[in-house]
């Protein structure tokens, strides 16, 4: 390429001429530059999803803080159930029909200082060898704080009970010893009272695995009943 001399520059050489800058054009809406959203609907959905996620996270954090604060204030303790006494005056299986007369006294202890309990429903069920043979309803009541209440479940009547060979052998053993292994379970519907606030209804189950002597005329034929603490299950 030949040298170019321009007369108005007094004959001095300043190198080759610089070409003018090329012009580039960008059509809007094409390509990924500029941080702009290509589709307004997509932008709107992204914003909504982000807002919903942030709101849910905030709600969860606030709820967790409230739960911790309530726990620190009320310090809830589990209710305590004891089968303090049980009387069995009849328990005779004849031709797959069980004749029974059973009464169980229970104490319910609420150890909490700031939580009351509404017992809206209490259903007591009696089981022998895994089979339910009786059901009774107990009276609903409200239990205040730091309080112990007594309830009594009575089962009397007859019912069909089908025992297998193993269960029949266990019954014969209980009959010989005069001590019968009977399970009494309480199926409850309760609400907790935190000051002026009441919780939703929960359904705990109480399981009392008892060994009860058969008695006649107020005297046990064999053995002595011992008070038993029952298992508490929130289910």
TrEMBL record:
It is found in: Membrane. Its main location: membrane. The keyword Transmembrane helix applies. Keywords: Membrane, Transmembrane, Transmembrane helix. It is a single-pass membrane protein. It comes from the Eukaryota. This is Late embryogenesis abundant protein LEA-2 subgroup domain-containing protein. The lineage of its organism: Eukaryota, Viridiplantae, Streptophyta, Embryophyta, Tracheophyta.
